[in-house]
Amino acid sequence: MQPKRVKIRVNPGARTERIVVHTDATPDQEMLRVYVTARAVNDKANQAVIGALAKYWSISPSHIRIKHGLKSRDKTILVHQV
């Protein structure tokens, strides 16, 4: 089974952690905005993003991988379905 690709925009250092789905997203290409409280230092924001997405989708964090954008706010996430 092919992993699902999801484009996200990350806002590190937010007041609260939350995930917002863009209304203009197409069904086959989901676009999310992920707000995390962690700062973008020593990969902490990326780990917080993976944790937030895992909680949002109710899956294990090991099923989520950042494909592109490790050092950018715009990222492509691969979600491996169980």
Structural write-up:
The chain is of the alpha+beta class. It has one helix at 44-57; strands spanning 4-12, 18-21, 31-36, 64-68, 74-79. The chain has one domain: Conserved Hypothetical Protein Mth637, Chain: A (2-Layer Sandwich), CATH 3.30.1200.10. Strands 2-3-1-5-4 form a 5-stranded mixed β-sheet, with helices on one face. It is globular, with a radius of gyration of 12 Å.
Number of domains: 1
What is the CATH level 1 assignment? Answer: Alpha Beta
Kindly report the spatial arrangement of strands forming the biggest sheet.
2-3-1-5-4
CATH architectural grouping: 2-Layer Sandwich
Topology pattern, helix = H, strand = E = EEEHEE
Strand content: 35-45%
Structural category: alpha+beta
Note the gap between the termini.
9 Å
Based on CA atoms alone, the radius of gyration comes out at 12 Å
| Strands, count | 5
Shape: globular
Which segments are poorly predicted (pLDDT under 50) over 5 or more consecutive residues?
none
User: What's the quaternary structure here?
Assistant: single chain
Quick synopsis:
The chain is α+β, with helices and mostly antiparallel strands. Helix content is 17%, strand content 37%.
Layout of strands and helices, then pairs:
Blueprint: E1 4-12, E2 18-21, E3 31-36, H1 44-57, E4 64-68, E5 74-79
Parallel strand pairs: 1-3
Antiparallel strand pairs: 1-5, 2-3, 4-5
List keywords for this structure.
single chain, 82 residues, alpha+beta, Conserved Hypothetical Protein Mth637, Chain: A, five-stranded mixed β-sheet, 1 helix, 5 strands
